[in-house]
Amino acid sequence: MKDQALHMTMLYDFYGDLLTERQREFYDLYHNEDLSLAEIAENYGITRQGVRDVIIRAEAILNDFEEKTGIVARFLKVRTTLEEVQSLVEAAEERNMSRSRDSRLTEIHSEITSLLAGLED
Amino acid sequence: MKDQALHMTMLYDFYGDLLTERQREFYDLYHNEDLSLAEIAENYGITRQGVRDVIIRAEAILNDFEEKTGIVARFLKVRTTLEEVQSLVEAAEERNMSRSRDSRLTEIHSEITSLLAGLED
Questions:
Q1: Residue A115 has pLDDT above 60, yes or no
Q2: Chain B: residue nearest A106 by CA?
């Protein structure tokens, strides 16, 4: 269940609000807060198997949404391309610095930085 | 039902695969192919009210996903910022043209154009 931690965190970020409150809680404690099944079970006074069932169901729901919509994959692609663009902007800025400055490059750089930060939210 | 045509098309684009086949068909014919309720009803041999119920249900599902996840709003924000960045790149390119060229700007321009095209898919 805990493979692909980053992937599971992104699915939760995008689709988490589609889960029930309990699914969200257990999923978050397990995948994002790194509690064990036994620890969650103890905190909530239910069996380890009960916790496991809820998390597996939540994972199945999130994976199903992604399989059908491909939205997280789409976002990752946008992010990768933006990172490439940002490298190009940085290189263009460096060259620009040694000549008369075009302040638009700085602005482009900062807009893309904000965009990338927004994608991390 | 037919207000906000663009918004409804985007919701369909993102979440359409979460609908049942019939919901998808009717929604698509009505919102994207611009058929009337009566036309769809005639083609499928059911009542106009029956078609209407399916479409209203489909709209509710799509709106509910968006309300919970905010994914389309997020994408629209990315697109708007990218369009602003693209204008800045174009201005920087024009200035760049009159001097010795930095080919990175052309590359940045074309990467952002692809990104924007990808967001339209």
A1: yes
A2: B88
pTM score: 0.76
**CB proximity B61 to A under 8 Å:** no
For residue B115, what are its two tokens?
Answer: 């990104």
Contact A50, B66 (CB under 8 A): no
Q: What amino acid occupies position B93?
A: E
Tell me the shortest Cα–Cα distance from A47 to chain B, in angstroms. 30
A72 contacts chain B (CB < 8 A): no
The confidence score (pLDDT) of residue A2 equals: 66
List chain B domain ranges. 5-69, 73-120
Which residues in chain B have Cβ-Cβ distances shorter than 8 Å to A84?
111
B5-69: CATH topology is Arc Repressor Mutant, subunit A (1.10.10)
Which residue bears the tokens 């359409």? B16
Q: Which amino acid is at A9?
A: T
